[in-house]
Amino acid sequence: MLKKRDLHDVPALFDLMIDPEVFPYVRHKADTSDEYYFITKQTIEAEERGKLISRTILDEWGQPIGTINLFDIQENRGFLATWIGKPYFGKGYNQIAKEAFFEELFFQINIEGIFMKIRRANIRSLKAAQKMPYVVNANELYPDVYQWINRHEEVYDLYMISKEQYMFHYYGGPTSDEEVLEA
C-alpha cells in the first residue's frame, strides 16, 4: 500500500498530479515531468536528512496512485499532506493509506503528533478528517500554529492527531475527547 518514494514512479504520479481536480491541492507542484523528477529527487534527499517523511501510495496491483507526506517536522510533530489521483477518488485508498502511514509514524518513527491544515473550501478533505475518530479540531488547542498557518489570510482549519489519541483508537480504547480525559 505504501512505499518509499522512487524516481521510477514519477511518470505515473505526474500524469495523476496534473489533473485540474488534483493539482490545486498538491503541495509540491510541477508543470513538467522533468520538474517533477527534480522535486521527487529533492524529496528523497530531504527524507534522508530527516526533514520530512514521504511515501508513494499504491493500489492493490502495486501501481502508484498518489503520495502521503509529513512535512515541516519539528519536535516530533509535522504537517500531513496527501493527494490521490482522480480515478481513485472515493474508493477508500486515502483512508487505508493514512492508517498505514500513521502506524509507521507513531510505532516505528516515534512521531508524537500530526497536524493537518485543511482549506475551509476543501469540503472533501474536511469531511475525510472529521470521519477519523482520533482527529481533533486544534484551532484553539494550538493557537500559535493556527495563527501561523493563517498568517496571510484566514482560510485554514487546523486538525491534530496525537500519538496518544491514535493509540487509544488503534487498541480499541476510548476515542472521544471526554472519554480520553477521563482515562
Give the SSE string. EHHEEEHEHEHEHH
User: What's the overall average pLDDT, rounded?
Assistant: 91
The value of Rg in angstroms is 16 Å
Q: Which stretches of 5+ consecutive residues score pLDDT under 50?
A: 175-183
Number of beta strands: 7
Number of contiguous helices: 7
- Characterize the biggest β-sheet: 7 strands, mixed
The percentage helix is 25-40%
**End-to-end C-alpha gap:** 33 Å
Determine the structural class based on helices, strands and strand pairing.
alpha+beta
Percentage of β-strand residues: 15-25%
Spatial strand arrangement across the major sheet: 1-2-3-4-5-7-6
Shape: globular
Explained architecture:
With 183 residues, this protein is of the alpha+beta class. It is built from 7 helices and 7 strands. It has helices at residues 10-17, 33-48, 93-109, 123-131, 143-149, 163-170, 177-182, and strands spanning 2-4, 53-58, 64-74, 77-84, 113-119, 136-137, 156-162. Strands 1-2-3-4-5-7-6 form a 7-stranded mixed β-sheet, sandwiched between helices. The longest helix has 17 residues, at 93-109. The chain is globular. Mean pLDDT is 91; it is low at 175-183.
